[in-house]
Design a protein that fits this description.
Blueprint lengths: L7 E2 L2 E2 H12 L4 H15 L7 E5 L5 H8 L9 E3 L6 E6 L4 E7 L8 H7 L10 H11 L4 E7 L8 H4 L3 E3 L6 E3 L8 H5 L4
Parallel strand pairs: 3-4
Antiparallel strand pairs: 1-2, 3-5, 5-6, 6-7, 8-9
Helix pairs in contact: 2-3, 4-5
């Protein structure tokens, strides 16, 4: 069933996008729905034909929206996560760093109690209504987001040198790693995920 006003996210009808979220993420996540609208807002604010990268300021749900709706993925390194714990993303020119930052604006949630309860964790998840949250996202459209022009710091812009570093074998474990990370692989330097 189409929702009011035939809202679209990316190239998908709203309900079709909800199904894509479920397939990709494993469940219907309000954060990805919000992220989908944020991606559309960012793309609408970019010059036509611009090559862009994306920074997500949260590792929760937002990167999935970017990966669903753009060619930017963590794997191809066009999507980066700079964990600030803010629900925001930035689309920026991969050469100049000039871009647009889009965020879910808590100050604009007064008319959207279900979104507010979800976003600000005002109620436990089991007391929230997913249908109400999704309905409010559909009705709110772009009204609950803020934007600002930004310039990404050069340290976040990938340089060709960083993308193509030499590969060597770690003298401790024998596994291949990027030699720009040290004489030994990060795991053998004590920075691995295992004890």
């Amino acid at each position: 069933m189409e929702r009011e006003g035939d809202m679209k996210i990316g190239t998908y009808a709203y309900d079709e996008f909800i199904e894509k979220v479920k397939e990709f993420h494993g469940s219907i996540a309000p954060g990805i729905v919000a992220g989908g609208v944020m991606v559309d807002i960012a793309k609408a604010n970019l010059p036509e034909g611009e090559f862009f990268d994306v920074i997500c300021e949260s590792q929760h749900c937002l990167p999935d929206a970017v990966q669903l709706l753009t060619p930017c993925t963590i794997g191809n390194r066009w999507l980066k996560i700079a964990e600030t714990s803010r629900y925001a993303l930035t689309f920026y020119n991969k050469y100049t760093g000039e871009g647009i930052r889009v965020y879910l604006d808590a100050k604009k949630l007064g008319d959207w109690p279900a979104i507010s309860a979800w976003f600000l964790k005002e109620k436990p998840k089991k007391e929230q209504s997913l249908d109400r949250i999704l309905d409010e996202f559909c009705r709110a459209r772009t009204a609950i987001y803020g934007t600002e022009k930004v310039t990404v710091k050069p340290s976040f812009i990938a340089s060709p040198e960083k993308k193509h570093s030499a590969i060597g074998l770690c003298p401790c474990c024998g596994e291949a790693f990027r030699t720009s990370l040290g004489e030994r692989c990060p795991a053998c330097q004590g920075r691995g995920p295992y004890g």
